Amino acid sequence: MRNYILYGFGIALCISGIVYLAAEYVEYLSDWGKLGCLILLIGLFSFLGRHFQELGR
Amino acid sequence: MTIKSKRNLYLYLAIACFIGIIVIFVDGYLGIHDTIYFTLRERERTVGEVDYSIKYVGGDEKVVFRYELDNRRLLSYSTSIQASVWKENEKVLDLFSQDKLIIKPFDKAMVEWTLDSEELQAQGFYAGNYTEYTVKIERNGVERRIGVTYR
Questions:
Q1: Which of B7, B13, B28 is facing A33, going by the closest CB pair?
Q2: Taken in order B7, B12, B14, B15, is the CA torsion positive or negative?
Q3: More confident residue, B126 or A25
Q4: What angle separates helix A2-25 from helix B3-29, to the nearest 10 degrees?
């Protein structure tokens, strides 16, 4: 149970960090940078989802 | 591949994606960034877009420009800055010129100049009736253009 709380805390920190970066610095990114970030964000959540899926087996 | 190593692989890939996002943001943040501000009728605005146009300047009004350079590199940045007014690809008036501006690492520098309509008219150029001019700002291979329309 404690592990899941830590996981949840880590994910919340990770998401809030990305939201902060996006709000403050997105204006400095090129179009390719924005596309790269979007792809990596999709990858990040997909891999996290698969990780927890495997964890639940 | 065991279940545990497969599970860890997904976690490592997720961490790699997160680091990739951070790297893209850091890369975007670093470098030389410039911002142009102008003040017209006591209101200051930021020139954001590529083809920005200042509308509509009165024949007796002044536009005050502020050009801010932000050096977000580990090295000093040295540049020359020229600002001038152009009409139909011909230079009309020099507004500002500085040969050497040195900015320390992670520091900012600001220069200021004024576009005076009366000075433009003194050079024999009409400033009224929706005439358009271009203010060009040049520094080490970078050129910014702002349209100015007089009414």
A1: B28
A2: positive
A3: A25
A4: 20
Looking at residue B49, its pLDDT comes to 62
C-alpha to C-alpha distances, B144 to B5, B50, B61, B117, nearest whole angstrom: 53, 8, 22, 21
CA atoms within 13 A on the CB side of A28: 20
What is the tens place of the pLDDT at every residue in B59-105? 778 889 999 999 999 999 999 999 999 988 888 889 899 999 999 99
Residue of B nearest to A49 (CA): B10
Contact A21 B11 (CB under 8 A): no
Burial class (CB in 10 A: 0-12, 13-18, 19+), B22: middle
Q: Does the CB of A12 have a partner CB in chain B at under 8 Å? A: no
Residue B36, SS3?
strand
Read off the pLDDT of residues A1-52 as tens digits, 9 standing for 90 and up.
Answer: 788 888 888 888 888 988 888 888 888 888 999 999 999 999 999 998 998 8
Residue of A nearest to B18 (CA): A44
Distance (Å) from the C-alpha of residue B100 to the closest C-alpha of chain A? Answer: 26
Summarize chain A as % helix, strand, coil (round to 5). Answer: 95, 0, 5
Is any Cβ of chain A less than 8 angstroms from the Cβ of B21?
Answer: yes
